[in-house]
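Before the break, one more example. Copy the sequence into your notebook; we will annotate it together after we see the structure.
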Amino acid sequence: MTYDNDNVRRQDRLLTYEKAVRLLTDGEYGVLSMQAENGGGYGVPVNYVWDGHDSIYIHCAPEGRKLRCLATCDKVSFCIIGHTRPLPDMFTTEYESIVLSCTAATGLDEQERMSALEALIGKYSPDYKAIGRKYAEKSFHRTEIIRLTIVSWSGKCKALPRKG
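Here is what the structure looks like once it is written out:
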């Protein structure tokens, strides 16, 4: 998993590695972009969890457009947007984001799938882990997990000094 900002056009707006890791860890959602079955593009916002190493996990139904797209091409892009703040009087926006190039995999073994569901529960429902585990077990048969293995990623931000 290479953090590589060499191809970011605005080198003055690079997100530090530490801030990029924070956004990868704490981001609320990301946009999964894939090649569509008809050769076009398909992007969809999804909840996710990072394993702290080189993989992101997403849950979905065991059938649907995401899975059909991934069956066509397993190379995907995943974008996470953090803080944004429009600055109308300056005709600009403060922002932070990371873009990850990944390889997607489905059909994971049961242990990895349940581990991913537990990690998602830990991120989004930390006060309800026991109930969440029971819910995950009950709905396990109708849940698919997608693992995105991060190949490379980059980060960009724009922050302006606050007016006094």
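The longest strand covers residues 144-158. The mean pLDDT is 92. Try to locate both features in your own notes.
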